[in-house]
């Protein structure tokens, strides 16, 4: 899953910023541009979260079918390491992940399709994340995997420090206890 390759189901999008003496302007979301980048998705909900301290970790989250969500994620204040984990049963990269820095400064957005888990850790204080979702929040379908599951082996860059977590995230299961409801669609994959 190399997000720089057009064959990857994970897409990185960086909308152009038009700078002038006042600052800048950008089209933060355009359906046709996303379609041109290989993303065919109808979004129905926008989310916005604020994380106060460095080392706040949310994830690894997903909703199960029929409420599964694709997400288009961007950071509008501060910086985070954003992670997408392949949870598609039968995928050659099942359990593996992509991690990239999203920041207010770099303006990158990451598109994560259905079948992937999502999580992030803050690397600056006062981080705001905005993301679009392709399905409504459904608490009964809300699920996740432990951030420190050894089978996921995600390097969050914490260097031994304990992250700030929700109670829910502390209780999430590991990959070995997880029976994935997501099917692998055969989309071409590349080594991470
Ligand atoms: C996700 C979500 C939560 N909530 C509520 C439930 C709870 O009372 C409060 C906080 O929810 P959480 O603790 O689940 O928030 P958080 O840990 O930030 O959950 C989010 O994490 C990132 C990584 C994602 O990818 C998101 O899809 C979502 O799972 O907000 C909604 O009302 N709507 C929503 O869409």
From TrEMBL:
| Taxonomic source organism | Sphingomonas crocodyli
**Name of the molecule in the record:** dTDP-4-dehydrorhamnose 3,5-epimerase
Read off the NCBIfam families from this record. Answer: rmlC
Give the pathway: Carbohydrate biosynthesis; dTDP-L-rhamnose biosynthesis
Oligomeric form and interacting partners: Homodimer.
**Active site: residue positions:** 61 (proton acceptor), 131 (proton donor)
* Site label Participates in a stacking interaction with the thymidine ring of dTDP-4-oxo-6-deoxyglucose, positions: 137
Does DNA repair appear among the keywords? no
Supply the EC number(s).
5.1.3.13
Q: What does this protein do?
A: Catalyzes the epimerization of the C3' and C5'positions of dTDP-6-deoxy-D-xylo-4-hexulose, forming dTDP-6-deoxy-L-lyxo-4-hexulose.
Instruction: Enumerate the catalysed reactions.
Output: dTDP-4-dehydro-6-deoxy-alpha-D-glucose = dTDP-4-dehydro-beta-L-rhamnose
> What gene does this protein come from?
rfbC
């Amino acid at each position: 899953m190399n997000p720089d390759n057009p064959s990857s189901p994970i897409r990185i999008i960086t909308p152009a910023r038009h700078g002038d003496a006042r600052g800048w302007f950008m089209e933060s979301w355009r359906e046709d541009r996303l379609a041109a980048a290989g993303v065919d998705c109808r979004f129905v909900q926008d989310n916005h979260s604020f994380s106060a301290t460095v080392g706040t970790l949310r994830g690894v989250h997903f909703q199960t079918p029929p409420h599964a969500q694709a997400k288009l994620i961007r950071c509008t204040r501060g910086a985070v390491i954003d992670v997408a984990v392949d949870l598609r049963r039968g995928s050659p990269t099942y359990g593996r992940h992509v991690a990239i820095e999203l920041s207010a400064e770099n303006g990158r957005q990451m598109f994560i399709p259905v079948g992937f888990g999502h999580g992030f850790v803050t690397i600056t204080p006062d981080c705001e994340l905005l993301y679009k979702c392709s399905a409504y929040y459904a608490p009964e379908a809300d699920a996740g995997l432990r951030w420190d599951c050894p089978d996921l082996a995600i390097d969050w860059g914490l260097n031994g420090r304990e992250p700030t977590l929700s109670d829910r995230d502390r209780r999430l299961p590991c990959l070995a206890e997880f029976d994935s409801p997501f099917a692998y669609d055969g989309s071409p994959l590349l080594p991470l």
